[in-house]
Write a structure and sequence with these properties.
By secondary structure, the protein is mainly alpha-helical. Helices cover 49% and strands 5% of the residues. The protein has a single domain (5-148), classed as Orthogonal Bundle (Arc Repressor Mutant, subunit A), CATH 1.10.10.
């Protein structure tokens, strides 16, 4: 799986908002806190607002805040808001892929990949990450020494 810059930046900004305890945070502050390009971040925040994950207020006292508690926003929700489906095959959902002959069962592999992603990304919330209290599946998978070996 490749994590896009949009998803990575969105998560970093939202984690900063999660740590702000509901206070409004200006876009410039979010960009500075996570060393993100402000113009790109502003576009991402617009998508997150449209997705109902953040609210914004204009003006001198304005800024951004989460629309719901950090414990209700999963990593999967953020990735879907920025990039669309968690797993796709040539831009389509795995269940829409069709193969013939020797590749007939490749669709089953793509479905299994999506299920694996969901098992992690739909379990982890912003509150989990911001608080360092990750679900057991994340701790278990990340403690496997083989997980840290690049291939």
């Amino acid at each position: 799986m490749q994590i896009s810059a949009r998803a990575d930046y969105a998560l970093r900004a939202l984690l900063t908002l999660a740590a702000s305890d509901g206070e409004l945070v200006k876009g410039e502050s979010l960009a500075t806190a996570q060393d993100l390009p402000l113009r790109f971040l502003e576009n991402i925040l617009t998508d997150l607002r449209r997705s109902g994950l953040v609210a914004s207020r204009r003006g001198a006292d304005g800024g951004y805040q989460l629309c719901r508690p950090a414990g209700e926003i999963t990593i999967a929700m953020v990735i879907r808001a920025t990039d669309g489906p968690l797993a796709s095959v040539r831009g389509r959902r795995p269940e829409d892929a069709a193969y013939e002959g020797a590749a007939k069962h490749l669709q089953d592999v793509w479905i299994a990949v999506r299920v694996s992603l969901r098992r992690v990304l739909e379990e982890v919330t912003l509150a989990d990450v911001a608080g360092g209290n990750l679900p057991s599946i994340v701790c278990e998978l990340s403690q496997d020494q083989d997980a840290w070996v690049a291939r």
